[in-house]
From TrEMBL, chain A:
Gene3D superfamilies membership: MetI-like
Protein name: Carbohydrate ABC transporter membrane protein 1 (CUT1 family)
GO terms for cellular component: plasma membrane
Record keywords: Cell membrane, Membrane, Transmembrane, Transmembrane helix, Transport
Organism: Georgenia muralis
Keyword Cell membrane: yes
CDD domains assigned to the protein according to its UniProt record, in alphabetical order: TM_PBP2
GO BP term, example: transmembrane transport
Residues that span the membrane, as ranges: 26-45, 89-109, 116-134, 170-192, 231-255, 275-299
Compartment(s) where it occurs, according to its Swiss-Prot or TrEMBL record: Cell membrane
Automatic annotation (TrEMBL), chain B:
Pfam families for the chain: BPD_transp_1
Name used for this protein in its record: Carbohydrate ABC transporter membrane protein 2 (CUT1 family)
GO CC terms, sorted: plasma membrane
Family per similarity comment: Belongs to the binding-protein-dependent transport system permease family.
Organism: Georgenia muralis
Coarse class of the protein's main subcellular location: membrane
Length: 308, 271
């Protein structure tokens, strides 16, 4: 391992052998190719077919009558798809802003070593590692009428009646979005922290000699040096917020009314509560199209970072 | 760097400590409360701890669910790694348009909302007789996690110097042999990080379990918890006891792999 030069020389001597070896490496891709074709790509094809057909619970496993774009038109005309898109946008905005800002602030605060920082980071990553269904249950309990948050709000005289965290249509969307950002902050803080730890200590020493304030350090050293990471993380956080459904399922199940029906969750409800699989599939296809746009953005931000 | 933490840093740390410390503490406290103490304001912090919730939760059904969770999580981890390790290596060592297309497809698959998969899979599994079977859930979970696992492992395989393999080839090792005895041991951190995450994600996955198992009798813990929390008239101490019991294996895995997660998690995200 410590002598790369002779190894490279030997490798060039073995050049004729390299070509078949490279090709044989394609065989390593075969299991994943077959498996994903069967259980990921084929379902997507079925999803698109379903979205163009009239499929209910009773016709699910028979021939599907083709109805073209009727499902999409129905979703748009009833206003459900549009409303869900608006709610999803608000949801993603809250998750992204809170997740990114507190993620970066957390990384800056936890960058220094010390017992408090170490323990806090470990607790945060543990919370991140817990199943969403566990975290969702706890937050549902904290948000309850007699839950901790309402007890605290009453104790400080903020309110006399219970705050309707999960029962009011505006509060509910915000509350579930907040819990989603709560769940993504530890990951973002960890990634930001790794980028911050890459900054040479000399840079901070030089800044200190020049009399830079702490805020100037953040603004002129830390933020610029995490900018490429920030771009990638931004797309990841947007995707995370967009595809999120488990906290919605656990905390509100889309309610009250339709208040927390984001686009992916609406598709799920249409298929598995109303048993209109065609309509649910059409809503999901819209969600898949949004993901395709995000994936292009992600691929771009990655290649940009690799260049920098 | 040597300067002491500023006031803003301290405020952020206090805020985060409250945000993450309190909920975790709350699960634990509530699980030891009696139903009467849960919503009594004077017993928020001071109460007589009881283990009623645990005694009630720990019955045969729970042990069945626990066993089901273990089977699903272990099975998914094994299947996912068996497929994703060779794929991650293959994508790290080959180049060209096919690889770019493959990576792009993996990124898209990884980003898809799970609700877009559950609808067609429900129909396909119905056709193939995979509904109401543990194998079906394991396969669906693996399909969900393979793209993620490949993307996370690829940079670890790329970091293995190709010269090592070339040296092994000179010594007469086949591609397969040098993969197992040279590449895999060097990339073991990546495999361990990925395996841990896949296990944790499979442990918590509930949407497939709720929809593909036709009766709660065969649910894993996560699905049981999801079903109870969305029901009316929730028994909070019982629910929190269930939450604590579902979290114990996570704590176990987590305490063994924290360093690995802390340092390895960030590799796949940005590279």
């Amino acid at each position: 391992m410590s002598t790369p030069a002779p190894a490279a020389a030997r490798a060039s001597a073995a050049a004729p052998q390299r070509r078949p070896r490279r090709q044989s490496r394609y065989l390593f891709l075969l299991p994943a190719l077959v498996f994903l074709a069967l259980f990921s790509v084929y379902p997507l094809v079925q999803l698109v077919r379903m979205s163009l057909s009239d499929v209910t619970a009773s016709t699910l496993n028979t021939a599907w009558p083709f109805i073209g774009l009727e499902n999409f038109q129905q979703g748009l005309a009833s206003g459900q798809t549009g409303d869900a898109l608006t709610r999803t946008a608000v949801f993603v905005l809250v998750v992204t802003v809170v997740g990114m800002v507190l993620g970066l602030a957390g990384a800056i605060a936890l960058r220094t070593r010390g017992r408090w920082s170490n323990v806090l980071l470990a607790v945060m990553v543990f919370a991140w590692a817990l199943p969403p269904v566990v975290n969702g249950s706890v937050w549902k309990f904290l948000f309850a009428d007699a839950g901790l948050l309402n007890v605290a709000a009453r104790a400080v005289g903020l309110t006399d009646t219970a705050l309707p965290f999960l029962y009011d249509q505006y509060w509910a969307l915000g509350a579930v979005a907040f819990v989603n950002s709560w769940a993504v902050i530890p990951f973002n803080a960890l990634v930001f922290r790794a980028a911050l730890l890459n900054i040479e200590p000399e840079v901070f020493e030089a800044a200190a000699l020049d009399g830079a304030s702490r805020w100037q350090e953040v603004r002129h050293i830390m933020v610029p040096s995490v900018r490429p990471t920030m771009l990638v993380l931004l797309v990841l956080t947007i995707v995370y917020g967009f595809r999120s459904f488990d906290f919605i399922y656990v905390m509100t199940y889309g309610g009250p009314g339709t208040a927390t029906n984001t686009l992916p969750f609406l598709g799920y409800l249409q298929a598995f509560s109303r048993f209109d699989f065609g309509l649910g599939a059409s809503t999901s296809v819209v969600a898949v199209l949004v993901v395709l746009v995000l994936a292009v953005l992600y691929a771009r931000s990655i290649s940009k970072e690799e260049k920098e | 760097m040597s300067r002491s933490a500023g006031p803003v840093n301290t405020i952020v740390k206090v805020l985060l400590s409250l945000m993450y410390g309190l909920p975790l503490l709350w699960i634990l406290l509530t699980s030891f409360k009696s139903s009467a103490d849960v919503f009594a304001t004077d017993s928020t912090f001071v109460f007589r701890p009881v283990v009623t919730a645990y005694v009630e939760a720990l019955d045969g059904a729970l042990l069945d669910a626990l066993q089901q969770s273990v089977v699903i999580a272990v099975g998914t981890t094994a299947l996912t790694l068996a497929i994703a390790i060779p794929a991650g290596y293959g994508l790290a060592r080959t180049r060209g348009w096919a690889v770019s297309v493959g990576l792009g497809l993996l990124i898209v698959l990884q980003m898809l909302p799970q609700t877009a998969n559950v609808i067609p899979l429900f129909q396909i599994f119905g056709d193939w007789g995979l509904l109401d079977s543990t194998l079906g859930v394991v396969v669906a979970d693996s399909a969900l996690l393979v793209p993620f696992a490949v993307i996370l492992m690829r940079p670890f395989f790329r970091a293995v110097p190709p010269q090592l393999e070339e040296a092994a080839a000179i010594d007469g090792a086949s591609v397969l042999r040098s993969f197992f005895s040279v590449v895999l041991p060097v990339a073991r951190n990546g495999v361990a990080t990925t395996g841990t995450l896949v296990f944790l994600l499979a442990w918590g996955e509930f949407l497939y379990a709720v929809n593909f198992f036709l009766s709660p009798g065969t649910y894993p813990l996560s699905a049981l918890l999801a079903q109870q929390v969305s029901a009316f008239g929730i028994n909070w101490p019982g629910l929190m006891a269930l939450a604590v019991l579902s979290s114990v294996p996570v704590l176990l895995v987590y305490s063994l792999t924290y360093r690995l997660l802390r340092d390895g998690l960030t590799v796949g995200a940005v590279k």
